[in-house]
Amino acid sequence: MTEKSPSLREQQKAATRNELIRMGLLLFFENGFANTTVDQIVEPLGIAKRTFFRYFKAKEDLVFDFYEDKTPTLVRELKNRPKDESPYEAVCKALSTQLDLYDVNPDWAWSLVCLLNENPELMGKGFEKRLTREQALAAALIEREGKNKITPLKARIIVGTALIAWQAALDEWYEGGGKSKLRPIVKKAFSIAGQ
Amino acid sequence: MTEKSPSLREQQKAATRNELIRMGLLLFFENGFANTTVDQIVEPLGIAKRTFFRYFKAKEDLVFDFYEDKTPTLVRELKNRPKDESPYEAVCKALSTQLDLYDVNPDWAWSLVCLLNENPELMGKGFEKRLTREQALAAALIEREGKNKITPLKARIIVGTALIAWQAALDEWYEGGGKSKLRPIVKKAFSIAGQ
DNA sequence: GACAATGTGTCACCTGGTGACATATTTAGC
DNA sequence: GCTAAATATGTCACCAGGTGACACATTGTC
Lengths: 195, 195
Description:
2 copies of one chain form a homodimer.
Chain A: H1 8-31, H2 38-42, H3 49-55, H4 61-79, H5 87-96, H6 99-104, H7 106-118, H8 120-145, H9 152-175, H10 182-193
Helix pairs in contact in A: 4-5, 4-8, 5-9, 7-8, 8-9, 9-10
The structure holds a DNA duplex.
């Protein structure tokens, strides 16, 4: 397919963005979210505070960059699911794709989960992002099933249920101190939520 | 039963709290949440900004006072449900109690729903509060069913599913401009979510 | 190489939120 | 009813997140 050649500007912007995220998460993990100021993130990188807020609308958004990033992938995944899967099944299977990311660098994932669970403010923002994902997935589901085969209400509930199961699984994982494997917990949660 | 005689102090505090909430919501409805400063709320009442933040940890909390307020009631309601109802049914029935509030002063309810839907920041905080409610209800459900009859994971998922249905119903209501009746939408949503 | 477009830094400023301390008010003991 | 402890409020100084405006620098285009 058409390989995009990212212009120099794009490359530099992506690099700066990554630097900010790396440094930000590093400091958040080390000192906590509330105890880390934007200035502390920005200063060692030689970047202006103002610039930070051109990349991220809010301090919290830095944490959820990866999350928002993956919603389009998830939507595509859902649309590509075999037609014979039930709506709920398809959504669950699509979501399960994300588990690979947890497998690849589990300690990073764990740190992130801890960060969220220990900072209610972040949780709030996280839910906000989840809402966007929920809506995107619901729209995709409607498209997949056909507009007159599933109501918006039903689509939202199916997607919402799957996401709740996911969330519950993550919490269970967190409660257990991350000792257990996430994948089977998620599987079980999906199964329970599916009745 | 024992009628509590609220001390003078308690009365005054309650009065101040109500004043703040009334004025706050009034201004939020009129000018929007972001466009209303705490000073604007506080000034016409002759109250210091500092005092505002003694009543509410954050500006957003003023909006959710009513919400947090009713969680204990909800928990009690759930515990009092007849034993022959299924867990999910019991949670739904308990939640449905809240519908009376929407019937009593529908325009106030409508304004509030609009406020939430039009301010993502508020949504975020709202989800945060919902999490607390979710946990409280899950705990109550476990207590109701017996600790060895239902796992925490399952309890959370059941409660979460019901709350998702509720949320989806509210959204549907909002999308429809509030023309339709909320109660039947919620009923339908509960039914769909129950499979 | 010149000009437009876009990104970055600097600065001033607003607003949410908090700690510290003084002052006023309620409560409780007598 | 007076006094002393307890608690609520006001004032003030200050921090940190976030934004608008403007100048400067860098990249893209012809």
